[in-house]
Every structure is written in structure tokens, then in C-alpha cells.
Amino acid sequence: MPRKPDPTLKPAIIEKVTEHLHDTKLEAVSVRSLGRVLGTSAYPIVYHFGSRESLIDAVVDHLERDVDVLVLDPEADEDALGAWLIAVFGGLHHRERLLAARLAFELGAVETLDGRDRERLVHRGHLAALTAWCSAHGYPVPAAAEAAADAVRAARGAQWAFLVDPDETDVDAALRTVADRLVTGARCAVG
């Protein structure tokens, strides 16, 4: 009779792999190398996750667990907009938020090569949330989508700047500027 899986093993694997990824490029990660990190064979990884990609997805889900539940109310005021932008794109001085941003860039850069669309769907969700906010605050329809796209590009640009030059980049301040620009645009649109 086969053994029952240990329900504590899967979260423990995710935690250990998350810790490992703080100092490891995704391209250097394989099921075997992760098995070595865990002090075991590749079997528990394959058994619990099926593949390297599924394990990496589980790590990203773990890192984004608090961000994924955040919703931007289209009627939100300027302060709530800034807080949402910082919660979703900022906070990179925290190790897990920094790793989540780095993985978003690493995975997003190559996901279309293997037919995946996780990061694209996340990106489109951000665009939709900001477009709805802009529309609710008076932007005309085409301008709302354009302003939202500009805001997401600016937010991702601030993240990238922090990844490559953390000592010279204040992501949260840049995100507050993005919020200010959206609010200013809304005021101009309304008249």
C-alpha cells in the first residue's frame, strides 16, 4: 500500500525553494538542483508539483498571496490609488516583494516562448483596474486605457530601476508620482 503524502511537505518545499531563489537565477534552477537544495531526490518535487514550472508557479503564488487579493475600487480617492500602486508594485525593500518583482520580469520575459501567459494576464489585470479607475474619474474611454497603460509601464519601469540600481531608486516615491499624474489627468479631463 503506497504511503500517504505528508501535507506539510508541499508548503515546506515552497518555503525552501523561495529562500533558494533569493540568490539564484531561474535559468540555473532544475528539478534536480532543487532536490539537492532540499537534501533529497527530485521525486518529492515531481510528486507534489509535477514539474519545475508548476513549482515556480507555486512559489510566485506564495510570494503574491497578499497582493493577489487587492482590488482597486474604481471610485477610490487619490490616497487609496497611491496605496494600491505601492502595494502592487512597491515595497521592494522587503525581500519577498523584491523576489516577486524579479521573478515577474524573469518569467514574463520568456513565458511566450513556452506558450504560457501568467504574467501577461497579471499585466492585463493591472491595466483593467487602472482603466476602470481612470474612467470612473472622468477620463474619456480611449484616454483612460492610454493613461492606465502609461501608469503600468511607469510602475514596471520603477521596479526595473530598483532591480538594477536599488541605491538610487525610490520605487514607492515613483509610484506616488504615478498616482499624482493619474489624478492630475483626471482633474484635467473633468475640466
UniProtKB/TrEMBL annotation:
Residue ranges of DNA binding: 30-49
Q: Where is the HTH tetR-type domain?
A: 7-67
| One Gene Ontology MF term | DNA binding
This protein's UniProt keywords? DNA-binding
- Superkingdom in the source lineage: Bacteria
Check the record and name the InterPro entries matching this protein: Homeodomain-like_sf, HTH_TetR
- Protein name from the UniProt record: AcrR family transcriptional regulator
The organism that produces this protein has a lineage beginning with: Bacteria, Bacillati, Actinomycetota, Actinomycetes, Micrococcales
